[in-house]
Design brief:
The protein has 35 residues and is mainly alpha-helical. The protein has one helix spanning 2-34. The protein is rod-shaped, with a radius of gyration of 15 Å. It starts with a helix and ends with a helix.
């Protein structure tokens, strides 16, 4: 049960990292378009 919680926490962290990466890509593309 404890290992399940740890896996869940790791999944949330990787999902958050993916979200940040996607947001960064969008921002970079937007900046590159105006540059």
């Amino acid at each position: 049960n404890r290992r399940l919680a740890k896996d869940f926490e790791r999944t949330i962290k990787s999902a958050t990292a993916l979200l940040y990466a996607a947001a960064a890509i969008v921002l970079i593309r937007r900046i590159a378009r105006y540059a």
